[in-house]
Amino acid sequence: MRLPRVRLGIYTALAFLAAFSGVNSARAQDIECQRGDLEVFRLVFEGNHAFSDADLAKIIVTAPSAWARRYLLLPFTVKHCLDRAELPNDRARLIIFYRRRGYPKATVDTAVKELAPRAVEVKFTINEGPPMILRSFVVSGLDSIPERGRITRGLPVRQGGRFDRFAMDAAADTVRQRLHNDGYPRADAINRFAVSDSTLSAWDTLYVTPGPRTKIGAVKINVIPLDSAKGQQIPTRIVRRIMGLDSGELFREDEIIDAQRALYQTEAYQHVSITPDSNADTLITLYTNLAEAQMHAARVGAGYGTLDCFRVTSEYTDYNFLNGARRFDLTARVSKIGIGRPIDGAPGLCPAARKDVFSNRLNYYAGATLRQSVFLGLRTVPTITVYSQRVSEYNAYLRTTAIGGAASVVWRGFTRTPISLTYAMDLGRTEAQPALFCAVFNLCEAAERDRIQRTQQLAVLSLALTRDNSNSILSPTRGSVIRLEARSSSQLILSNKDLQFNKFVGDASQYINAGGGNVLAVRIRGGSVFGRNVASATSFIPPQERLYAGGPTTVRGFSQNELGSLIYIASQGKPFLTRFLSTDPNTGLPDTVVLSPKTDTVGQRRIVPVGGNSLLVGNVELRLRSPFLPELLQFTIFTDAGEVWNRGTPQVSGVKLKVTPGIQVTAFSPVGPVRVAIGYNPYQRPKGPLYYEGTEFIGAPLLCVSPNNDLPTHFSNTDPETVTQEVPPNGCPATFQPARQSGLRSRLTFSFAIGQAF
């Protein structure tokens, strides 16, 4: 049965309700406490050197109460009590563990010590003794196997090492699995060993029975349709093409698993099984049993986001488009509802979005995607998308695409490491705040900005790799994730000459189980973007391709996109402007003045994030299991560090990582973790250029009004006035710095988000 697909926003409010109304279910090893039982306040292992306390704690049943109860004395937390009947069993478990790991003379003693009334310490004193040494390790039975060395390479057992039964079993499993993937489906491997307790020596032989080398014979397919009246929906020849298994090929178990996975990934089947004939000899028959699922699905969702305001989405999917197991999706999304024109009737419900100058128009996406299950017989998933959209980034840019298309191929040749190659082209325009163009690219004239912001053809070729070894998509507790992406745009791939760039971004995360349900998470992220070549660091980069940081998923001590250089827009009104008479040194005429703000009263009306062509972000956070409602709540202590800067500018000499610690509360909901973060930012806002939007003048010019600037500014004698300003190549001076806010509250940055930070 197909599970319903649920959208994120619709459950945002429910997440907190669930967090405070749910109940905790006991863990598998929890020891229930009865009245009068002794609570285990401390668990101690003494004398263990070969294995850590954490390794040994996983073997036994006795467990201490939660750390929050033991150290913070918090009530309503997990409480573990002593079961004296299990204590001898725990001793036996440890002795058996040590003997199987190569310590035959290991002994274990137990002691229970009272720490406080009804609270005890349980201590296991271990004498490991000397290890038993593996004097010989032989693999027998592989003489007839081609590439015998590849089958035995890198086994976890070595002669002269410790006699570890766990490692021996792992070696047998490895040899068996490698043979199954090399045409020997009935291969088996069994360890036979001898030991001498007096000399602490062992001899092991791994006896391998490979069986006959086998090829695939017939591939028989049986399909159960969802509706017997309509019959089978996907033709058998299409099923065979998706499986990619042909008669006469060498039997490989991993290819059987890949074929099963490929059928599941079409989402057209609710059951898939591929079973080999157990009685076959050199030719093996594969029996494929399939149960078809619904071939059509429609979904509608609604939600709310702090930056998106209200949003709605709808999807329609055909899993068997043109009877070829192709997936065809129609998708429509609309956000900024309530604040964006023409549906802007509830701006008060979107306080965060009101601060974004690009939230005054609806964002939308309408697209059609066709995904082919296989391509040219390779393990790839080709996809073609046609779309139209308008998307904005907080106070940074607004990108409107009249029509766009993308063609991509995903190759899954490596386990858990899909590699995607995408070519995208669109006709669109990117709008950014005039101050960004003027301060970063020295495009201060309206005509220059219009040239860059007109509708142009943008083509991008990208290559992305993801290596996901984590144990969860939404909230990993162990494993790692690595993401790498390279993007390039040039005239060679039919992009406009003004929109050429090269971009590289990398991201690596590691998740470590710290015990007790706690997780240590670490991430590092870096990126670089440049123009036509590496040396062109200061050339024009489309605003949507610049690098930004700050916000709930990067550096949480800064507001969205506000890490790095900033541009300031002065408050409106003529009282903020002062005209100083001067004389033009070339003409000697007194018609040139310097425009400058009154530094004692000036303030910024808004902030324009600049972003940069270089980025570095690091995060460390300890995710702590909640002492109450632990299945629903999580507390996090984090430290974020990072910086965004522009190579090729004077700013480079002053680049320093900004470090912002903080705390976070996470509630686990049906749509994933919902979290509120508080970051501490001790830094004063950086110096930057200050601009004034002269809407009272003809043409509404953008004027540099930074303190102590000496830019010649010319006023006409007309009413209304015309103003022109002579801006040098180095642009408006970055001499304005907002006053430092006093008080703790002004240094705290609050953010709300769905999903873990990384």
List the defining traits of the structure above.
758 residues; mainly beta; 16-stranded antiparallel beta sheet; 4-stranded mixed beta sheet; 10 helices; disordered N terminus
Produce a short descriptive summary.
The protein has 758 residues and is mainly beta.
Can you give a write-up of this model?
The chain is mainly β. The protein is built from ten helices and 33 strands. The chain is globular and about 110 Å long.
Give the helices and strands, then pairings.
Blueprint: H1 12-21, E1 39-46, H2 53-57, H3 67-71, H4 87-100, E2 107-116, E3 119-127, E4 133-140, H5 148-152, H6 165-180, E5 188-196, E6 201-209, E7 215-224, H7 236-243, H8 253-265, E8 269-276, E9 283-292, E10 296-305, E11 309-321, E12 326-337, E13 363-371, E14 380-393, E15 397-414, E16 417-431, H9 434-441, H10 446-453, E17 456-468, E18 479-489, E19 501-515, E20 518-530, E21 566-570, E22 577-582, E23 592-597, E24 604-609, E25 614-625, E26 633-645, E27 658-669, E28 672-680, E29 690-693, E30 702-704, E31 712-715, E32 723-725, E33 748-754
Parallel strand pairs: 1-3, 4-6, 7-9, 21-29
Antiparallel strand pairs: 2-3, 5-6, 8-9, 10-11, 11-12, 12-13, 13-14, 14-15, 15-16, 16-17, 17-18, 18-19, 19-20, 20-25, 21-24, 22-23, 23-31, 25-26, 26-27, 27-28, 28-33, 29-30, 31-32
The separation of the N and C termini measures 31 Å
* CA-atom Rg in angstroms: 33 Å
Fraction of helical residues: 10-25%
Unreliable stretches: 1-30, 597-601
Biggest β-sheet, characterized? 16 strands, antiparallel
The total beta strand count reads 33
Question: What is the number of helical segments per DSSP (H or I, 4+ residues)?
Answer: 10
Structural class given helices, strands, pairing?
Answer: mainly beta
Shape summary: globular
Residue fraction in strands: 35-45%
Mean pLDDT: 86
Strand ordering within the main sheet: 10-11-12-13-14-15-16-17-18-19-20-25-26-27-28-33
